[in-house]
Amino acid sequence: MIERSTLIIALGAFALVILQNAWLCDDAFITYRTADNLINGHGLTWNAGERVQTFTNPLWLFTIAGFYFFSGEIYYTAILLSWGLSVLAVFLVFSRIANDWRAVILGSMLFSCSKAFVDYSTSGLENPLTHLLLALFICSYINRPRDLFRLALISCLATLNRMDTLLFFLPALALAWWPQRSLRSTAILALGFAPFALWEIFSILYYGFPVPNTAYAKLGAGIAPGELAIQGLHYASHSLQLDPLTLCTIIASAIVVLWKRDTRLLPLVLGLALYSLYTVGIGGDFMSGRFYAAPFFVAVALLLRAWPLPQTRAWLLASAIALIIGLLAPYPPPFNTPAYGSDRKEDNQSQHGIGDERAFYYPYTGLLNAATQQDTLYPIHGWADWGRRLREFSDGGLPAVVRWPFVGLIGFYAGPGAHLIDIFGLGDPLLARLPSRRDEPWRVGHFKRLLPDGYFESYLYGPNLIADPKLARYHEKLKIITTGDLFSAERWNEIWKMNTGHYEYLINIEAYLHPSPEEIFRSEQATMGEPIVFKPDRFMHFSGLGDIYLERRQFVQAAQTYRQALDLDIHDIRQRHPEDYLVKMGALYLRLSQALIELGHRPAARTVLETFLRINPQNAIIHGALQDLQSP
Length: 632
What we know:
The protein is mainly α. The protein has helices at residues 4-21, 28-39, 58-71, 75-97, 101-113, 115-119, 127-143, 148-161, 166-177, 183-192, 194-206, 213-219, 225-242, 244-260, 266-281, 293-306, 314-327, 357-365, 367-372, 382-395, 408-414, 455-461, 469-483, 489-499, 509-513, 517-529, 538-551, 555-566, 570-576, 581-598, 602-615, 620-630; strands spanning 400-403, 419-421, 532-534. The mean pLDDT is 92.
């Protein structure tokens, strides 16, 4: 029996530590941008008008979208929702799983001192909801192991929250099903997973693919499994150095359950082991500790259930060890201050690309900082400020195309008017399917792609301008899936072909794995040199598009596009470009004449130049071009 006072004190201490460390990361805002589009009528999209699934957590997305719909504010909404779910998950462990009040004290020490668990009890990611569903499953598995539907439904919801968490549940589900195996029990399991099946059907119908776009971006980057496994071991090593309590607890929990030979808990340990091996296999993550938060939660729940507290005083020793290991770690959560991370900007990332993500963002998104600067609009990160400014421009009729690697904060605050091209491919259907570059060391979760020549211009001007003809065709097929009519026969034909690899031959793997120095320079300049470009007005749109055609020697398209610019109202052009409209008009007439000359229409080119001289008789450049044209 757990004393109420012990439960309140232990839970209250944990709740205060979580608030003390509460923060949001950039990646969380990737999901929030889709939630914002959803509640504002743009559908489950990343870029408005383009159906691409950038989120891996449908259940969390709908949860956060519901609260955001009513609050109209994302920063405090996300933090308080995460905090509430985390406290509820730990409450279930203390009240329904732990053996007695001594186990609760040990659990409070562990939960409050684990950097991984505390960091990702907020952060804005889906972890708190995963922890709550894990708690519900363990409670049901221990107390009602024959209730297959309940176990399957909770597992299904957790899978909807993040697909790879299914590994936690599979062994326990199999053990619960085996004694009562039959067609009926199998049907009950299937019924419990019906929501996930429905989501998969919706995903194929709406997005055209059964898995998120991020799966292609991260798992399809072309990295060898051996390289990923080595990176996964580096991930474990980094966590052990920064946060030794978390991995030590996971290992200790498994040892205790195996030592006690508790057959009921062994399947949960097996699920814990499967997920841990999976984490190594995928290379871990760039966020230190993120993929160990859920295993740690399961480990503590099992430890508090299996530990022989009533018979011994080992709980005192265990609690003391947990406290010592936790507090002697480099950055113990109970000692967090508003200054956390502000002095670690240079050395926050290890040589293997793994970093303390909370240290990077806490100065800009930490709740303690927001509480002490109530007159400041949080988060205060520069990327959020860029986004807010872009939204102002967009609301004023000046949308932008953004080429930037870190798209969460800027994407959310820029709103649906901005189109974001994510060089890591998380939100981009084409780049996600290209192999990542090998000209520089890769960082897990950040697999940089070469920006294809003409890809950015395709979104800036509209037509498919990708220079590589095969990749241009591949892009056309993707666009049919992501922007075409949902129920057209053409779209469903392309969905089948794309998912069965029919168009893989159109991607020149080697060209994107090992691009030339010239291509690398062009791509880097496009993404980092001038990351934000505003969409031009109609005159500059046709003028710029015509210039691309002219440069590529597509003279027919160039001439047609330039004529579209000249068909516009000259008074409107003068109003939009009052200081230099004659210069811009002269340059356009000149380039139109060049396209006509290349097509062999010299009389038409002469007429074009003479037409402009009637507008501006003093233009020396046009006079010179006309004289050159009249020369034999």
